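can u do me a favor
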């Protein structure tokens, strides 16, 4: 079956997902009904009416009915998700705990809980509770322990060079970003594109397929198109479908996404054994290595590609681990003395040099 890529499919998500091939999606982003169960109208202090979430699609007869609904769509999502794929689902305190329980019961493994901290939340107009300034995203993998996509370095760069945390301070969709029809909100729970930008950038690569079972006005599709990802949206409301199509048609993909936003991860770089440094004469048997910042902890390089320090001998990782009594990445913890500058440098510099040599174009020398 050929996939209807970059398409909005009109219909109920459980029925539509049942017609898609098993294991086709790299990522699922789900923004399901929250079952807010609002009672009565909301009014601002100036007596203007609050356009709150009172849509028919957010109404359920009971918590049991909501649980049955949640179990059905999560099960359908699990079937179409690749074994190495991940799922993001967003909610509030009204529903996210119930969704999380069912998600785990179905066999998903939670990777992170991310809190979206709204920099400009709607006030609590009744003055009876704290202002609800957050929503929760659960990031989960289909198969515990499977290899999944996490663009750590891209997210670190996006966060100004420091690790991105699980609290994301972002504004709600407002101003020109907020879609309106005849002056009214087109969708009561439209998510900001900045939120989907982080989700998609973090957990997919260009060309990956994202499925959104509650597509609404198409925020996930718009961002996926910007970042050169494929997408399938499922939406049963024809009005939302029309708005989403027009919105996505107007999106121009980012020109340099693959170059700027998806830097290669060192984990995906070609594996280099320590012994290869000796084979390429970047180190020699008998050379001295020192643990970072500890001149008294010196080791000697052996011809076999192992190192020895006192009674210890083995790999750069094993000897370092024994000396530090802690986890040790030998490439980062062992230093060599640069013969030109005399400065002690991490041996990872030599690994990077060897990788450059491996990637260098051939000379096309017929004698080689």
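np, heres the sequence
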């Amino acid at each position: 079956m050929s996939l209807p890529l970059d398409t909005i499919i009109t219909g109920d998500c459980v029925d539509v997902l049942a017609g898609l091939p098993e294991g086709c999606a790299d990522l699922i982003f789900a923004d399901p009904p929250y079952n807010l169960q609002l009672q009565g109208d909301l009014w601002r202090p100036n007596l203007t009416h609050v356009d709150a979430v009172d849509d028919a699609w957010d109404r359920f007869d009971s918590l049991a009915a909501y649980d049955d609904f949640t179990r059905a769509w999560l099960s359908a999502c699990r079937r179409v998700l690749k074994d190495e794929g991940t799922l993001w689902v967003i909610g509030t305190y009204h529903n996210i705990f119930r969704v999380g329980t069912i998600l785990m019961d179905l066999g998903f493994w939670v990777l992170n809980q991310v809190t979206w901290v709204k920099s400009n939340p709607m006030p609590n107009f009744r003055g009876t509770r704290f202002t609800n300034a957050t929503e929760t995203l659960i990031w989960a993998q289909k198969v515990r322990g499977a290899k999944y996509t996490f663009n750590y370095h891209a997210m670190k760069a996006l966060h100004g060079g420091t690790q991105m945390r699980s609290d994301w301070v972002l504004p709600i969709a407002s101003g020109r970003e907020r879609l309106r029809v005849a002056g009214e909100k087109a969708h009561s729970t439209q998510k900001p594109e900045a939120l989907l930008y982080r989700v998609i950038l973090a957990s997919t690569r260009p060309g990956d397929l994202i499925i959104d079972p509650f597509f609404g006005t198409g925020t996930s599709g718009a961002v996926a198109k910007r970042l050169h990802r494929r997408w399938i949206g499922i939406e049963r409301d024809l009005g939302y479908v029309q708005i989403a199509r027009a919105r996505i048609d107007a999106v121009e993909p980012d020109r340099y996404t693959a170059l700027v936003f998806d830097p290669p991860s060192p984990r995906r770089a070609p594996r280099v054994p320590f012994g290869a440094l000796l084979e390429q004469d970047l180190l020699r048997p008998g050379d001295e290595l020192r643990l970072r910042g500890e001149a008294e902890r010196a080791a000697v390089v052996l011809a076999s590609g192992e190192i020895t320090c006192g009674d210890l001998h083995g790999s750069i990782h094993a000897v370092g681990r024994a000396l530090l009594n802690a986890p040790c990445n030998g490439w980062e913890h062992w230093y060599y003395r640069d013969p030109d500058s005399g400065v002690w440098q991490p041996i990872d510099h030599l690994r990077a040099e060897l990788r450059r040599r491996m990637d260098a174009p051939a000379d096309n020398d017929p004698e080689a």
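The CA atoms of residues 67 and 98 lie 7 Å apart. hope that helps!!
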